[in-house]
Write a structure and sequence with these properties.
The chain has 317 residues and is mainly alpha-helical. The protein folds into 4 domains: 107 residues, no CATH class; 54 residues, no CATH class; 97 residues, no CATH class; 35 residues, no CATH class. The protein is built from 15 helices and 6 strands. The termini are far apart. The structure holds zinc ion.
């Protein structure tokens, strides 16, 4: 089986598609299965190894690098609800591999016509890039060109006309794609909540102030919201978005966090510095207390809850 080297920013799903074409297989998924079978047959020590580890070995690269640099896992799991942050590619995240199928079959196949032409001139073929598959970004961050479906006939390089906010959304999302590990939900909610509070937005339920979805609707171009968020103003997405500062159990999609940071800050740099700052000990204790009060905190070994005089107090061991 011929397996070519992964190229810069190449999406794993696109690489599998290339492997399939080069080896006369019907799909990238089939190629993924064959590589797993091949590895399982030739080794007796496969038990416990993930498909990613096997594939990384086949490609001659580190498994963590494969996940971080060639999949959308960092985007799909930016904020995590429970436990310690996930280092993308480390063994603790094996439990999530049941979702592997969605990582090896592309959810979209967008590409930039200018990158396409450059690839043809340099490599002799074009490949699918990870950075062209981010929700809400339908322009190439290198060329500023509208992305098109990979299978579009005669793709034309049409310049994307972007507002300052769309551009900032792209910058923020692009930076989130390169993080080495996930962010705890308590940190994400707290950083967003503090900023909303500072701006006078509704950071407590039922307070008579502008909600973050109303704020976003006023700032982002209506055409972008309509194209990428469909029912944002009236539907479920807007309702979900309005819980972004208070949710401590169920993380929202990464695009929601990218949008929140886009509309809460004037500069992407300032937004990222704030959002990525880990909680200090006092903030952690306060977040744990709220989670216990809401009844969905998994008590860790290092803390226990003392019930008394109507209060729940967290005590460190
Ligand atoms: Zn491009």
């Amino acid at each position: 089986m011929h397996i070519p080297a992964l190229l810069p920013d190449e999406l794993l799903a696109g690489h599998l598609h290339r492997v399939a074409s080069l080896n006369g297989l019907e799909s990238g998924f089939k190629a993924a299965l064959m590589i797993a079978e091949m590895k399982t047959q030739h080794r007796t020590t496969c038990a416990g190894r993930t498909w990613f580890e096997m594939y990384a070995e086949t490609c001659g690269i580190d498994a963590a690098h494969l996940v971080r640099a060639h999949t959308l896992v960092p985007v799909m799991q930016l904020v995590v609800g429970r436990g310690a942050p996930i280092s993308y590619g480390d063994p603790t995240y094996r439990v999530r591999e049941k979702q592997t199928h969605s990582w090896i079959v592309p959810r979209s196949s967008l590409s930039c016509p200018e990158c396409h032409q450059e690839d043809l001139a340099f490599w002799g073929f074009a490949y699918l890039r990870r950075s062209a598959q981010l929700p809400g970004i339908d322009w190439c961050m290198k060329h500023g060109t509208q992305l098109q479906d990979r299978d579009a006939e005669d793709p034309q390089g049409v310049p994307a006309i972007l507002s300052v906010e769309e551009h900032r959304y792209g910058e923020i999302f692009g930076a989130l794609l390169d993080l080495p590990r996930s962010i705890p939900i308590a940190q994400a909610s707290k950083r967003v909540r503090d900023r909303m509070r500072a701006l006078g937005l509704r950071w407590r339920s039922n307070a008579p102030a502008t909600s973050i979805s109303e704020w976003a609707s006023a700032l982002m171009p209506p055409s972008w919201l309509k194209r990428r968020w469909h029912d944002f103003e009236t539907g479920q997405r807007g309702q979900d978005f309005d819980s972004i500062h208070s949710t401590l159990k169920f993380p929202l999609p990464t695009s929601h966090y990218a949008l929140a940071l886009t509309v809460l800050y004037d500069s992407s740099e300032e937004a990222l510095i704030d959002f990525l700052r880990p909680l200090d000990d006092d903030e952690l204790a306060a977040a744990a207390e709220v989670a216990v009060a809401r009844g969905y905190h998994r008590r860790s070994r290092s803390t226990r809850v003392v019930e008394g005089s109507g209060h729940k107090i967290l005590v460190s061991r």
